[in-house]
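Appendix B. Raw example, untouched.
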Amino acid sequence: MKPTFSSNPNDFSTAVKSLMRPLSLFMGHTLFPIRSLQSITRAISSRNIGIIASKQVRMEKRDESHGNNGVETTTRSINPRVDKLQQFVRSDSTGGWEDSWEQGVTPWDLGRPTPVILHLHQTGALPKGRALVPGCGSGYDVVAIACPERHVVGLDISNRAIMKAEELSSSSPNASYFTFLKADFFTWSPTELFDLIIDYTFFCAIEPDMRLAWAKRIHDILKPGGELITLMFPISDQVGGPPYKVSVSDYEEVLHPMGFKAISIVDNELAIRPRQGREKLGRWKRSSAQSSL
């Protein structure tokens, strides 16, 4: 059982007296009589009170910093890199992403392929044909799923992100099966439709009022009968962003009017540890109605 401490000096005095009435303190081979019981209890009590006061001050300072930023306590990130990213994007919704890449403030970047995406590829569970990864960043997922049966396009609004993706993948043996493009997802017009689109940390990165436009764009560039894979993150009650909180209903609200039907929505059992319990894997089919492209 974890010991508990009282801040009342009298409680300490009583406890110590009952236990140490006849005792001496042994150090090495010499016995040192305990001469001042009151000094011990005062020291213990003062230290205990000091710890409590210190914790209280830290809590108050933390709450004050939250209040100064105009954000509720529950909305603050414990990751200072996320806080920095939000500062960049709030100051410039487009250039902020470039700044984040230039300064290495990319808290969403796993430094490797997304485990569940890699698993779907390795188990043959991804559609073949043309695939798109919007907001591809360093391009790990693009490279991981590219193969002779599937050409993958990685798209990002940041030129620095695309440069990094190209640098990291320059010697990949499957380099002929993927392409990286610097473009704005909402205005870019591909020459061909896609059989598969994978969205991870893209939906949550855009302003919530742009989600309907996101769904319309997905609809317009995905083949009839094509598949959309969404890794829904972060499923939480946080306020503000990016990343902005998401829910299954947020996706349904914008995808259903566009003719998308959910094939399956399940918890992502392969989510990295910090995201476990806050992430779902959604698979959607686009209606067979003709695309507008």
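End of appendix B.
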